[in-house]
């Protein structure tokens, strides 16, 4: 496959917190296979937070999608809940009110949130 050719993978996962580990390991293998090892740490953090939210806050199955096109890596997760989560506030503000940092970490590490 040419280096700049677009690609996409989707991993369907059950509503089980153990799926977070499976998603992280699968993502690491995909990125390594495509020569993007330098992105794995941040990508794994993003994927773990997104998948754990999808699994924790919905009752049905979830999925992780990893896509690269035009030099941009996109990571997304979704669960059975049709309503998307509210975008987080600032990380420090979330700590002050006792909320977990999950989606605030995604916001801090991702180039775009949406």
UniProtKB/TrEMBL annotation:
<dbReference type="InterPro" id="IPR050267">
    <property type="entry name" value="Anti-sigma-factor_SerPK"/>
</dbReference>
<protein>
    <submittedName>
        <fullName>Regulatory protein</fullName>
    </submittedName>
</protein>
<dbReference type="InterPro" id="IPR036890">
    <property type="entry name" value="HATPase_C_sf"/>
</dbReference>
């Amino acid at each position: 496959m040419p280096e700049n050719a677009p690609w996409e993978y989707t991993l369907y996962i059950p509503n089980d917190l153990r799926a977070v580990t499976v998603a992280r390991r699968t993502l690491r293998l995909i990125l390594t296979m495509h020569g993007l090892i330098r992105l794995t740490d941040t990508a794994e953090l993003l994927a773990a937070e997104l998948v754990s939210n999808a699994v924790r806050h919905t009752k049905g199955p979830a999925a992780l999608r990893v896509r690269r096109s035009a030099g941009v890596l996109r990571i997304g997760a979704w669960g059975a809940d049709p309503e998307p989560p509210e975008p987080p506030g600032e990380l420090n503000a979330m700590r002050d009110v006792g909320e977990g940092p999950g989606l605030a970490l995604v916001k801090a590490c991702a180039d775009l949130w949406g």
